[in-house]
Amino acid sequence: MRNLLSSLLLLCFSAFGQTPTAGTVTKVTDGDTLFVSGVKKVKIRLAYIDAPELKQTYGIEAKKYLDNFLNKSVEIETIGTDRYGRTIAVIYHNNKNINLSIVRKGYGWVYTRYLPKKPDLRKKYTSAESLARKKKLGLWGEKKIIAPWEWRRKNF
User: Which among 26, 33, 92, 156 is placed 20 to 30 Å from 44, CA to CA?
Assistant: First the structure.
């Protein structure tokens, strides 16, 4: 039975080209980038979200939230690779979607530019951001915030 379940899970993930892997978070660069070591060390950019840069309002807080996962085991759902060679992925700890939790807690924005046009997925992430905004959680409680993509355009 256990082998059947494992085979079915592998088949499901293979069908979508997203083979899940596991590892341990070894380094956090900022609020949406971390390193995971398993079979090899991988630099991961969290999919579907954009956290403030370290020099922005709430940038340090976003990084500190991810620091909570240092030396913790995570599951990695690979989405692809970006132009910088980073693995784009959704990270899970104890079956909890860390990318989504960053948005829910107000540590980052939904990166709609890179969010697939899958209605259920879009709704999950955009609803989480809307609720965080409404409750003024995290960065949404600040008076002057600038989206990271706008900040980078002005500062890099």
Answer: 156
Local structure of residue 140 (DSSP, 8 states): G
pLDDT in tens, 31-85: 999 999 987 899 999 999 999 999 999 999 999 999 999 999 999 999 999 999 9
Rounded distance between C-alpha atoms, residue 118 and residue 123, angstroms? 9
- 12-155 CATH: 2.40.50.90
Domain-wise residue ranges, the chain:
12-155
DSSP state of 121: H
Q: What is the pLDDT of residue 39?
A: 79
pLDDT at residue 17 greater than cutoff 90 = no
Report the relative pairing of strands 87-93 and 96-97 from DSSP bridges: antiparallel
> What pTM was computed for the model?
0.85
Token pair belonging to 39? 């079979």
Report the alpha-carbon distance of residue 103 to residue 71 in Å, rounded.
22
Q: Per-residue DSSP letters for 23-65?
A: EEEEEEEETTEEEEESSSEEEEEETTEEPPPTTSTTHHHHHHH
Distance, CA of 10 to CA of 4 (rounded, Å): 10
